[in-house]
Predict the 3D structure of the following.
Amino acid sequence: MTLVLRKDTDGIAKLTLNRPQQLNAMNPALFIELRAHVDAIAADTDGVGCVILTGAGKSFSAGNDLAAIAARERAPSKHFQAETIAALEALPQPTICAVRGHCFTGALELILGCDLLIASDTARFCDTHGKFGMVPLWGLTQRLPRRIGLLRAKEMSFTGRIISGPEAVTIGLANACVPDAELDAHVMQFARGIVANSWHSARGNKLLYQMSQQLDLDEGLAYERDKGPGVAPDMAARVANFGRK
């Protein structure tokens, strides 16, 4: 069984976690397939302008597969899962996560590797590390406070409280929350809006935003001025054609 499906449409690569009977719980084999897709997409900037990550069935993912943990299943390297999320985060293309149903713990860590997030009204976000005597290893303590602020990140981890789709928008975890039946169409329309613009600009903007998280203000301003990717080869044509359609 293929654990991560890929479907390409008009420059949009859609990756789907495909263990619906297990609520897409993530075992090492799933991460191996996900990493292969991520690496392939990273090398295909001419063919892929945007990436959607979602889950099959009624849930995005219930999190790390506890049965796989109990069976002592192992990934190819000690930090393979964390490195895969880092590779997802480092993709040159913009990434959108589409979440319905469960998005717990390890799945929460995974979605934080995406640039944007659209939730359905069935989405439920939760950090359950504390319920099992665990602590994060895949980047949660670094990415979550950068996304929603330190105070709210601590609340999620200390309490294990479930966050609904609408609340995820309120706290800055998600860009939007839509009715579940509209999620897939909404996310595809969102992605089409991205790929309709310059892919060069999208990649450049993503790089500069990523650097803004690593540099102080003065360094970031200098990086944008001196080391940014510059204008696209087709900029003059885009300017000339602006407003003609």
Q: What stands out?
A: Strands lie at 4-9, 12-17, 50-55, 95-99, 102-104, 116-120, 124-126, 163-164, 176-178.
